[in-house]
TrEMBL record:
Pfam family name, one: OKR_DC_1
Key words, A-Z: Decarboxylase, Lyase, Pyridoxal phosphate
Annotated ranges, domain Orn/Lys/Arg decarboxylases family 1 pyridoxal-P attachment site: 171-185
Gene Ontology biological-process entries: amino acid metabolic process
Organism encoding this protein: Lactobacillus crispatus
GO cellular component entries: cytosol
Protein name: Ornithine decarboxylase
Length: 537
């Protein structure tokens, strides 16, 4: 832990072995008490809804977030991050605290989204820092930025902090792209600059929270991998390995641009003409803002965030990202993901018209070559209109009646038209930019208490609008609540889950994991979709 603290520029590091879910829970437990206010990025993972809001009893001030037309998870809406706007939102919940110097005990920010939109930590601190005692950067999807020169400026652990700044907590999933085994995570604490102030959390109090969540039955291989990560990242070769990985990913994108007619990486328009050396050493090519449209995020302002070059997003046909509109023909990401799975390749995530892949120093050129060949092989099957039974035999053999005689292109087009008819990417955008986010009927903690006391009822999805959610509802991945406990279900929430549910019914085998919404079969064989809501008094 001391080695990691030195390498990552933290004051103290705590190793965790139940993933960043436990790391986040420890941070929330150490900082938050019932009634505290939390500035809450609506992109936060469900572990933070559960720990910071449900378990701690704190009150959220939700910040709306952006999605692009691919459904990729973007940034907090910068229009909501001015001091005046934040205080106005606080006043809706706690008028007295709206006037306080620091209304928030904690701000929780998804430092990097699942899809690789990575905040500049200084940009965040400049806007919200003086309003918060502490800021927790959930960096489950990052953590390696200090070792990549074009990303180094993003790190919350390299900030030049003064006694007037907030304390900094960072959580990292070391198993995603660093050297930890599955469930290996760490908390990095950087708050010596506020030591002696009333808001400071010392080791005794932080460790008190830590001990609530760690097991006494240690999994020594996990701890060994955490230790290995500390020494690997401190070694002289670490930055060199990351540089090699970065360049390998750049070259892979260029090969895809050159060889594929259908699939494109999410990169600037002139990417192929820029030298690999220039792309690997100049951050401006990865930065996003309203002056560029290749990324499709309309609310992003200069300096707010950049796209993580160590995450490859591949766009599938069907959506014009720049102009935010559906195209006539398309290939849904789920179909490509199934093809890759049947060929023993696991993507990190797929969305409506994209697939995500994480690059690590453990990846080889041979593995990336295999991935490229798989995309080109799918493309060949698609263009030649091959039968599903030959291209996706595992899925076909599970549902032979449904897909009898179907070609790959026919499946893709039918699914594309279904999502197009329902304007699905627009629904996704509306879900996370809803007006009135502070109008929740009760806190998440109160809703959870009522749920535990069985003051809830299961209602059909068509009757859910206007009812208070007893538990959060989300598709997984990415694990971000669409409806949080204590919120009223809205029309857009109902419509989105209706689209997902009917997709499951219409396209068996392409089933996203859904939590907080229950699927069963009616007597007539149709799909029954329900959700738990608080009973009306």
């Amino acid at each position: 832990e001391k080695k990691a603290a030195k390498t990552y520029h933290a004051d103290k590091v705590y190793f965790c072995t139940n993933g960043t879910t436990s790391a986040n829970s420890i941070c929330a437990s150490a900082l938050l008490s019932e009634g505290d206010l939390v500035l809450f990025d609506r992109n936060n993972h469900k572990s933070l809804y559960n720990s910071a809001l449900v378990m701690s009893g704190a009150k959220p001030v939700y910040i709306p977030t952006d999605r692009n037309a691919l459904g990729l998870i973007g940034e907090m809406d910068p229009a909501f991050l001015t001091e005046d706007k934040i205080r106005a939102e606080v006043a809706k919940i706690d008028p007295a605290k709206a006037k306080a110097k620091r209304p928030f005990r904690l701000a929780i920010v998804q430092a990097e989204t699942y899809d690789g939109v990575f905040y500049d930590a200084q940009w965040i601190i400049d806007r919200i820092g003086k309003l918060c005692d502490y800021v927790l950067f959930d960096c489950a999807w990052g953590g390696f930025e200090e070792f990549v020169p074009i990303m180094r400026h993003l790190s919350p652990l390299l900030l030049n902090l003064s006694p007037d700044d907030p304390g900094i907590l960072v959580t990292q999933s070391l198993h995603k792209q660093q050297a930890g085994m599955a469930q290996a995570s760490q908390i990095l604490k950087k708050d010596a600059h506020i030591k002696g102030q009333k808001r400071y959390v010392d080791h005794k109090h932080f460790n008190h929270a830590y001990l609530k969540f760690v097991t006494s039955s240690y999994a020594y291989p996990l701890y060994a991998s955490l230790t290995v990560n500390s020494y690997v990242t401190a070694g002289a070769g670490n930055k060199k390995w990351w540089d090699q990985t970065l360049r390998m990913g750049i070259e892979w994108r260029k090969k895809l641009l050159k060889k594929s007619k259908l699939f494109k990486p999410l990169v600037p328009d002139n990417f192929a003409e820029i030298s690999t050396d220039e792309l690997a050493t100049n951050a401006e090519y990865w930065e996003m803002g309203q002056s560029t449209d290749w990324h499709g995020f309309r609310k992003m302002v200069p300096g707010e965030a950049m796209i993580d070059p160590l995450k490859i997003t591949v766009k599938t046909p069907g959506i014009d990202v720049k102009n935010e509109k559906y195209e006539k023909t398309g290939i849904p990401g789920a179909v490509v993901a199934e093809y890759l799975m049947e060929n023993h390749i696991i993507r990190a995530k797929n969305d409506l018209n994209s697939l995500l892949f994480l690059l690590t120093p453990g990846d080889s050129q041979a593995e990336l070559d295999t991935l490229l060949e798989a995309f080109l092989s799918f493309e060949k099957h698609y263009l030649e209109d091959d039968l599903m039974k030959d291209v996706l035999p595992v899925l076909y053999n599970e549902y032979p009646k449904r897909y009898q005689g179907y070609t790959l292109k026919q499946l893709c087009q039918e699914m594309h038209e279904y999502y197009q008819e329902n304007n699905t990417f627009v629904l996704q955008q509306k879900l996370f930019s809803k007006s009135g986010m502070q109008d929740y009927q009760m806190t998440p903690a109160t809703a959870d208490q009522l749920f535990k006391k069985d003051q809830n009822e299961l209602v059909n999805l068509e009757n859910v609008v206007g009812r208070i959610a007893a538990e959060g509802a989300l598709p997984y991945p990415p694990g971000v609540f669409i409806v949080a406990p204590g919120e009223k279900w809205g029309v857009v929430d109902q419509k989105y889950f209706e689209v997902l549910a009917h997709a499951i019914e219409k396209f068996p085998g392409f089933v996203p994991e859904i939590q907080g919404v229950y699927l069963s079969e009616n007597n007539n064989g149709s799909l029954c979709v329900q959700a738990e809501v608080i009973k009306n008094k």
